[in-house]
From TrEMBL:
Annotated source species: Rhodopseudomonas palustris
GO BP annotations, alphabetical order: sulfate assimilation via adenylyl sulfate reduction; sulfate assimilation, phosphoadenylyl sulfate reduction by phosphoadenylyl-sulfate reductase (thioredoxin)
InterPro entries, A to Z: APS_kinase_dom (IPR059117), P-loop_NTPase (IPR027417), Sulf_AdTrans/APS_kinase (IPR050512)
Lineage top rank: taxon: Bacteria
Phylogenetic lineage: Bacteria, Pseudomonadati, Pseudomonadota, Alphaproteobacteria, Hyphomicrobiales
Protein's name in the database: NodQ bifunctional enzyme
One Pfam family linked to the record: APS_kinase
Single GO molecular function: sulfate adenylyltransferase (ATP) activity
Gene Ontology CC terms: cytoplasm
Keywords, in A-Z order: Transferase
APS kinase domain sequence ranges: 1-87
């Protein structure tokens, strides 16, 4: 959050992918980033995440080899004040990217004409 805040203060948009199962950790990141913080909740069902797991982390967690794995043996507290929710089991990458662009425009982060960010992925 500290580095992302520094980038934001200098005119950049920083997108940080963080597994933050505790609401208090996300609240701390929001306090650090202040008014430039936008929380996007990736609300994809656990079974879909597990089916996409190329490293087998879910299987290792279920077998007890990975302690404190989010979603298995470590509860996740869903956000209540996020700016956007995306379920990647029902949204394509292009659709999710468009959702993010629109949210950034709606919340005052993007001011110029929107471009197709998905085309750059």
């Amino acid at each position: 959050a500290e580095i992302a805040s520094h980038l934001a203060r200098n005119g950049h948009i920083a997108i940080v992918a963080a597994v933050s199962p505790a609401a208090e950790d996300r609240a701390a990141a929001r306090r650090i980033a202040e008014d430039m913080f936008r929380e996007i909740y990736i609300a994809t069902p656990a079974e879909v995440c597990e089916s996409r797991d190329p490293k087998g982390h879910y299987a290792k967690a279920r077998a007890g080899a990975l302690k404190g794995f989010t979603g298995i043996g470590n509860d996740y507290q869903p956000p209540i004040d996020n700016e956007l929710t995306i379920d990647t089991s029902s949204r394509t990458v292009s659709e999710a990217t468009e959702d993010i662009e629109l949210m950034l425009a709606r919340t005052g982060v993007l001011f110029d004409e929107l471009v197709d960010l998905a085309a750059n992925i």
